[in-house]
Write a structure and sequence with these properties.
It is built from 19 helices and 14 strands. By secondary structure, the chain is α/β, with parallel strands linked by helices. β4 and β5 form a beta hairpin. It is globular, with a radius of gyration of 24 Å. The structure holds beta-D-glucopyranose (BGC). Beta-D-glucopyranose binds next to loops.
Length: about 425
């Protein structure tokens, strides 16, 4: 065997020396990774992660918990952790990372981060989120932009809409035309996190990045109670009139499918939606269009997916965690994974040549908005405030969306209350 492997074929015929007792092959460590990537486009991306880990000699044990935005996954993760049986790694992001670290449950991945110079290759705004008490405890996979608007060009054309609306006023003019043409103007899935996703884009578009920061990151009561927030809530409420009756409870990817299939004109959703368009074989500029949500072209709500590693005693598991952390940030993985996922690579200066135009725009806007002050963390996707507060604000926003009788003033009070609790 050895001889053949070394290419010395002539030795094969010689009398073989008695083979030393072969050391048993090390048992493959099974790496259990919790994630919530279950839609068509997401599953393709998760498959890349699995393939990469298997190439490193580990066995992937899939722990997928369906549910967009990850709320279900976080509930399941907590119950596993509480029972003392956490997975090897889990898809957790934003301030929740520090909460897990404060529980003393996370393994440091500083040795990998230092060896591979993460401080130099990651944007500071991302690196800061991955650390607890100065140590890396999470590995980032990507940068998603949340303030996107997706459209079906055929639906727009049929309705006589030329070009993507740049302001909310333009949006409502376009939406009226689509409604008249018999299609659904706005594809929306009525779930808490999807309502909240649309809401944050409206706040950003109506108020601008500085206002968004005050109201939804700093949770400044004056900003939440301001006339600008009143205007944002009125705009948000007006959108509902352009959705279809079956919107309630619809999953986000089924909502994107309405745009893909030519049943609806627009959707406001982060660029994981692009993963659905591309998985359906569509190309930007042809099958679908992307543009920043109205009024948000100079701003960028970022959402960085990342994996935390749990403190485990098993050495094989520790090795697998280090391999996972290292591979996640490799140029090769970043390139393939992000093309499937709809996001952009998290490494600074990654060559975007092979990416599509929406991703190229995202990469440019990420850098530009960081310079101009337009780069803000997404509250709807767990990047801006701690999970408990974000959840309470999300509930207030959803109540407002669902209850047409709830006044804007009352909604403002409820949001303010949720933000202070
Ligand atoms: C995550 C994405 C995911 C999306 C839908 C977002 O919060 O960051 O990775 O595709 O939710 O589940």
């Amino acid at each position: 065997m050895l001889a053949t492997a070394c290419g010395k074929k002539e030795d094969v015929a010689a009398t073989p020396a008695p083979a030393p007792a072969a050391a048993p092959a090390p048992a493959k460590t099974s790496v259990e990774v919790l994630h919530y990537w279950t839609s068509g486009g997401e599953a393709k991306s998760a498959a890349e992660l699995k393939a990469m880990l298997e190439a490193k000699g580990h066995e992937w044990k899939d722990f997928a918990v369906a549910g967009g935005g990850g709320d279900n996954a976080m509930t399941v993760l907590k119950s596993r952790a509480v029972s003392g049986n956490p997975p090897t790694a889990a898809q957790v992001k934003g301030p929740a990372i520090q909460e897990w670290a404060a529980e003393g449950m996370l393994a440091s991945i500083d040795s990998v981060a230092q060896a591979e110079k993460w401080d130099e290759l990651l944007p500071k705004v991302v690196a800061d989120v991955m650390k607890a008490n100065g140590s890396y405890v999470a590995a980032p996979v990507n940068v998603h932009r949340v303030n996107w608007m997706w459209a079906n060009p055929e639906v727009l054309k049929t309705a006589g809409v030329t070009g993507m609306p740049k302001t909310w006023d333009e949006f409502f003019v376009a939406a009226d035309k689509i409604k008249k043409s018999g299609n659904v103007a706005l594809a929306h899935g009525g779930q808490n996190w999807q309502d909240f996703t649309v809401f944050e884009s409206v706040v950003l578009g109506v108020g601008g990045a500085a206002f968004y920061n005050d109201a939804l990151v700093k949770l400044d009561p004056a900003a939440i109670g301001s006339p600008t927030m009143t205007k944002a809530l009125n705009t948000f409420r007006k959108l509902k009139g352009y959705t279809d009756a079956a919107s309630t409870g619809r999953d986000w990817n089924m909502t994107t499918a309405m745009v893909i299939g030519g049943k609806a004109g627009f959707q406001f959703m982060g660029d994981w939606a692009k993963g659905e368009f591309t998985a359906a074989g569509q190309k930007p500029g042809e099958g679908f269009l992307c543009a920043a949500a109205p009024g948000t072209a100079n701003a960028y709500t970022f959402n960085v997916d990342s994996f935390i590693m749990f403190k485990l005693k098993d050495e094989g598991a520790q090795k697998a965690q280090a391999d996972l952390a290292s591979a996640i940030l490799s140029t090769e993985f970043q390139e393939v994974f992000n093309q499937n996922k709809g996001s952009i690579p998290v490494r600074l200066g990654h060559n975007m040549e092979k990416f599509d135009d929406c991703a190229k725009l995202s990469a440019t806007d990420f850098v530009e908005s960081a310079k101009s002050g337009g780069l803000v963390p997404s509250i709807a996707h767990g990047m801006a405030v701690d999970p408990a507060k974000a959840g309470a604000i999300q509930d207030a926003v959803t109540q407002f969306w669902n209850d047409d009788k709830l006044s804007v003033a009352d909604a403002q009070k409820r949001i303010a209350q949720a933000a202070t609790n």
